[in-house]
């Protein structure tokens, strides 16, 4: 019995991603199949309710600018970081775009100030959408392929 699979887009080990509802474009992200949940460098300012829904307001310091964002707050979860430490983090759900593929993703807000990339894309966001070719970078960002570093 053979399993029919749809053709999946290929991503490199790092890509520029977009969070259109948050007004964030071209965020350098590390693709990490070892992480379950995607995470974004964000400092929580406050949580509040609007029209009976829970929201969180947070600041994203990236590319020399502070962006104030709001998103539906899905949960506060214990998330284990790469060093084995469990942290309680806000989890939001918002559209995420990688290349031409856009979908709603759960993203935890974390202090990534010590990390090289302000965003990490975990396997839950990749599942059934992308395959990873770890030998390449910027496969979904053609204009980025010819440059080094993060900024196009």
Describe this structure in words.
This protein has 152 residues and is mainly beta. It has one domain: Beta Barrel (Cathepsin D, subunit A, domain 1), CATH 2.40.70.10. The protein is built from 1 helix and 11 strands; from the N terminus they run E-E-E-E-E-E-E-E-E-E-H-E. Strands 2-3-10-4-9-8 form a 6-stranded mixed barrel. A two-stranded parallel ribbon has the order 1-11. Strand 8 and strand 9 (101-110) form a beta hairpin. It is globular and about 50 Å long.
Strand order, sheet with most strands:
2-3-10-4-9-8
The radius of gyration is 16 Å
What is the tally of helical segments? Answer: 1
Helical content (DSSP H or I, runs of 4+): under 10%
Give the CATH superfamily: Acid Proteases
Low-confidence stretches: 146-152
Distance between the termini: 46 Å
pLDDT averaged over residues: 89
Shape: globular
CATH T-level topology: Cathepsin D, subunit A, domain 1
Specify the oligomeric state: single chain
What's the total number of strands? Answer: 11
Classify the secondary structure makeup into a structural class: mainly beta
| Total domain count | 1
Strand content: over 45%
The first-level CATH class name: Mainly Beta
